[in-house]
């Protein structure tokens, strides 16, 4: 049955990523092909339990003096991604083509500058006063890094942040597509940025979700998640003759099942709804999907819920895998980071593996890709990002 699309596709004209798997997309691609975990013991601060994390340990760039009020780890991660592989030049080209007022910016984040706030409050505890150079609204608030990027690039279009836990930057892609479809913008920079902090690690540990060893998504013996950090930047533009050779964002399906504050619906109802909605918006059938990048955090309940969601929607599920065993769960950045993974799979012709997988959970009634498959070139990919409170998003991408 042929379905009519309910939203127009947009072109993905540039993308970049910084994570524990490397400082740019070339390093990320090499890590995906090697399928070797980049998770290591935490060095940024001390915590009272054992785990591995996806920490970015390379040098982060300095914030220029005129924007020092925005200086925090989150902003520096975003700046590092911006200056990799010519991505800044792609944004500047869009600004020159359309004008700064026609280029928007939407950020997805969950931690934002909490790490730097923690450090500031430690100074308060020690000295009795907050540091003079700490600006809460320009560091910790969700929109802080969005404002920093807007000022750094000289953008004048719509600029805001979305914070819906681990689906944040996937939902930012949905919002960006709507800005383009409604003619509010000609180009939108989507950023997914999250940095490690004590609150997140201790919080997930209090929920008994943290693994002491490298996580094993969709594995029968999985023990929990590893937290990571990263920054992914994706430039979206209206489709035209000048970008016909670029991949397309077809649609983002969104749902909110609100089953529980931190646990997904056991049957994956919200996850299945998000995937089905992405396909319906794009006018595509389940049989057309070549690969699913699973959210697959390696927590017992989340992986089981997603497995049931896939099985309920797909009679003959396509190959699936989860990549968080490489660089950890990057939380609010995960939707954008793993959209970049999916774009690499589309453009370079491979299926990512599931790093850490030993024995697939028998509840996973679909083919789980253990090692990267370099003989398959997918054309249509779903990439899932599911957050606390049932905030679900599924990104549908198509090759050029």
UniProtKB/TrEMBL annotation:
Pfam families: ketoacyl-synt (PF00109), Ketoacyl-synt_C (PF02801). One of its GO terms (biological process) is fatty acid biosynthetic process. The keyword Nucleus does not apply. Belongs to the thiolase-like superfamily. Beta-ketoacyl-ACP synthases family. GO terms for cellular component: cytosol. Keywords: Transferase. Signal peptide: none annotated. Coiled coil: none annotated. This is Beta-ketoacyl-[acyl-carrier-protein] synthase II. InterPro entries: Beta-ketoacyl_synthase (IPR000794), Ketoacyl_synth_AS (IPR018201), Ketoacyl_synth_C (IPR014031), Ketoacyl_synth_N (IPR014030), PKS_Beta-ketoAc_synthase_dom (IPR020841), Thiolase-like (IPR016039). The keyword Transferase applies. One of its GO terms (molecular function) is 3-oxoacyl-[acyl-carrier-protein] synthase activity. Residues 7-399 form the Ketosynthase family 3 (KS3) domain. PANTHER family: BETA-KETOACYL SYNTHASE, POLYKETIDE SYNTHASE-RELATED. Pathway: Lipid metabolism; fatty acid biosynthesis.
């Amino acid at each position: 049955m042929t379905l009519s699309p309910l939203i127009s596709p947009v072109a993905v004209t540039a993308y970049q990523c910084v994570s524990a798997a490397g400082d740019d997309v070339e390093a990320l691609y090499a890590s995906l092909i090697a399928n070797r975990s980049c998770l290591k013991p935490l060095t940024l601060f001390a915590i009272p339990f054992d785990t591995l994390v996806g920490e970015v340990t390379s040098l982060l760039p300095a914030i220029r003096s005129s924007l020092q009020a925005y200086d925090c780890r989150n902003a520096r991660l975003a700046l590092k991604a911006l200056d990799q592989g010519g991505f800044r030049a792609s944004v500047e080209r869009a600004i020159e083509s359309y004008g700064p007022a026609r280029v928007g910016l939407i950020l997805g984040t969950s931690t934002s500058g909490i790490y730097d706030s923690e450090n500031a409050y430690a100074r308060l505890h020690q000295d009795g006063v907050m540091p003079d150079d700490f600006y809460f609204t320009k560091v910790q608030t969700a929109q802080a890094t969005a404002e920093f990027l807007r000022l750094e690039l000289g953008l004048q279009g719509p600029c805001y942040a979305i914070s819906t836990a681990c689906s944040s930057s996937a939902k930012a892609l949905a919002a960006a597509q709507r800005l383009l479809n409604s003619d509010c913008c000609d180009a939108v920079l989507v950023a997914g940025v999250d940095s490690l902090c004590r609150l997140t690690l201790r919080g997930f540990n209090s929920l008994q979700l943290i693994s002491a060893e490298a996580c094993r998504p969709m594995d029968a013996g999985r023990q929990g998640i590893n937290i990571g950090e990263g920054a992914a930047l994706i430039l979206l533009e209206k489709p035209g003759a000048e970008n016909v050779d670029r991949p397309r964002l077809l649609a983002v399906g969104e749902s909110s099942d609100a089953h529980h504050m931190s646990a997904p619906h056991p049957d994956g109802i919200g996850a299945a709804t998000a995937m089905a909605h992405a396909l319906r918006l794009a006018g595509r059938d389940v049989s057309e999907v070549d690969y699913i990048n699973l959210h697959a955090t390696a927590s017992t309940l989340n992986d089981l819920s997603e497995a049931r969601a896939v099985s309920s929607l797909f009679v003959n599920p396509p190959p699936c895998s989860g990549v968080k065993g490489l660089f950890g769960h990057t939380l609010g950045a995960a939707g954008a980071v793993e959209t970049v993974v999916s774009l690499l799979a589309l453009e370079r012709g491979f299926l990512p593996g599931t790093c850490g997988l030993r024995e697939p959970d028998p509840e996973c009634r679909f083919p789980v890709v253990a090692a990267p498959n370099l003989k398959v070139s997918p054309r249509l990919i779903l990439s899932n990002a599911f957050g606390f409170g049932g905030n679900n998003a599924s990104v549908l991408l198509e090759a050029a």
